[in-house]
Please model this.
Amino acid sequence: MTRIAVFGTGYLGATHAACMAELGHEVIGVDVDASKLSKLEAGEVPFYEPGLEEVLSRNIESGRLRFSPSYSEAAEFADVHFIAVGTPQKKGEYAADLSHVNSVIESLAPLLTRPSVILGKSTVPVGTAAKLAERTRSLAPAGDNIGFGWNPEFLREGFAVQDTLHPDRLVLGAEKESRAAVESAAREVYAQLLEEDIPFLVTDLATSELVKTSANAFLATKISFINAMAEVCEVAGADVTVLADAIGMDVRIGRRFLNAGVGFGGGCLPKDIRAFMARAGELGADQALTFLREVDNINMRRRTHMVEIVRDMVGGSLVGTRIAVLGAAFKPNSDDVRDSPALNIAGQMQLQGASVTVFDPQAMDNSRRIFPTLEYSTSAVEACTHADAVVVLTEWDEFRALRPRDLDDVVRARRIIDGRNCMPREVWTESGWHYRGLGRPVEPVRVNR
Ligand code: UDX
Model:
């Protein structure tokens, strides 16, 4: 059993704290946001993440997990300190804003009077960990007895608990000086996972930071690749969904992350590829990542393209039309609307004169907060009432399960535009609906499989 402190209780930190307690450790979660702490203390997760509430409550009840705003309490209690605060995009710049990470070190390090280990989990530009390690040593009374490592997190929202307790791999970056102490602390924390033969890669700090950023850059590239193919399919009269299935059968390519649609959003991929480009530029390797600018451009183009398709479908102008938007979260099983393609598209359609009504199974409160001018419904069917077009922008199971008979009598016109290629096209077209997918021909292609 290790005594652990986790700084930051957002998506990453709250999940990490709860999961570390689930592994049998004693954990204290620390945050400067008192409202988050009081919710977590009551066993309530301040965001939607399937399965997390159970893990949280179970471990609070067992006494292994608690929350506090106090850095001194955490410094006194824990032997391993995880940094799990956010690294958002700086306003008006591509670079990452490291102020939260820096402030954890500035507050924590002066309180470290005995040997302990700091492990960073936040996504940071390469070179950050080495700087933070130096700063920690200069501030901490325990000085050289503080081990410093980076242990990037690869969790996906919606699968956060599963990804934390059963990750594909564990990566640990450590400096030469404190490598033994850092590795042994990490081995103790993750003992249960290592017993399950989860691969454990130990490397230097810079490589560990780059593992995370390059993994996200690759995933973003994969999505933009298939979306670029979707653009070509549309002008060539081909079907990107069949193309993805076919190329995905080559194991070197793989089918996952080849879903063409309105593109990627969320709190990670968009800002991480931009921070990566900014950092490569600072290091003099900007040419190496210019392709990410194109990845970003392809992705942002999806959103305007979607608006154009809807406009085209309703007869050339959105002015005075009623559009139902199904989905606001950046992906299903999440209430996260950060850089969500769905809300961005809804907003653009409204600016072009449409009256837009949005429904999402989980993201209504977050959406209302950042986009109060859109209209919101309490169900998918209500959102579609009197709609000139139904636009599916997040592939929730609830939307996939909709059938024409659910909407036939409420809509003004039977038009469905499938921004995630997730609806069964034949079912809709056979019922007399005008269906459009992204990167798919207007007339269905027959495939024998
Ligand atoms: C991502 C990474 O997957 C994760 O490893 C990292 O730690 C954080 O960033 P997350 O932001 O939770 O996780 O979402 P992810 O499941 O990767 O989806 C990102 C976006 O890409 C979503 O908007 C999703 O809709 C979109 N996407 C994904 C596609 O458009 N097509 C696909 O085939 C897959």
In short: The domain at 3-203 is CATH 3.40.50.720 (Rossmann fold).
